[in-house]
Design goal:
By secondary structure, the protein is mainly alpha-helical. 68% of the residues lie in helices and 0% in strands. The chain is built from eleven helices and no strands.
Amino acid sequence: MTTLIGPPDTDLGNSGMTGSDLLRELLPVCETEVERHMKMTRDWHPHDYVPWDDGRNFAALGGHDWDPSQSRLSDVAKAAMITNLLTEDNLPSYHRVIADNFTLDDAWGWWVGRWTAEENRHSIVMRDYLVVTRGVDPVELEEIRMAHMTSGFNPLPDDDGQRDHSFDMLFAVAYVSFQELATRVSHRNTGKACGDPIADRMLQRVAADENLHMLFYRNIVAGALDLVPDQTMAAIHAIVTNFQMPGATMPNFRRNAVLIAKGGIYDLPQHMSDVVMPVLRKWRIFERDDFGPIGEHYRELLAEFLEQMDIKVRKFEESRERALERQRAREQRTQ
């Protein structure tokens, strides 16, 4: 468990700014980002991305229930689609965290509503696609959805009562800065793994949304770094070193995560090279000169963590290469 307090004799709240003050000071950034988002985004309709001609009734309406032979998806693609969809399904949990840590007034409240509405399209289109094409068992999918949404998900690290919760907004926006980018990577790679141009087009559309959402949150964090660099650095460190994908609490997540990693859809090297490091570079974390003792403390801890992750990435890649060599050897023996 990462400690979320500063070094001895320091106080994360010593900026003299409260959480409400921070939201007020960041409001111009939020307004700018809302305007940018609305210029860049384009509306789309989930029904345009679903092959409805493939659909047919299930047994309750006189048809036939799902059978594994009906799915055209590989095991890897099924695991990724289920994990990605159930992640999108848990939107009420994410909405609650964002709404609780922002405000429903002004541009903040408008963004909470707009972001939630855009995110909801993702679960709509993915479920429609999977049910119509019979890509996965719809009964199992619904049972897992019920379990996952009942348990919920809180992205903020447990602080054992040590964190100044008036700054939880920083932890929330730091988390989604990385998480939105992670989902973009996962959705794009899942679309390719499906082997279906319709699924690929659908998930490219979803990934485009995720990228715009990432830009909004990443730029809010950039504004916070200018206002309260030490507190923001503490939040970034806590999120990066405790990061979990929002599907971590769903049933069968570990098994599916292994399949997803082996399939090259989302793994540790991608997490570090395509998600963590690009965001940290954009924030100029290791070039900034405006940190006080607290910020410097957490920047040093983050640098140590990244060094450890580099070692883990190398071990992962070496292990994967050995596994591929064994697979190639088996294929040669059977030829």
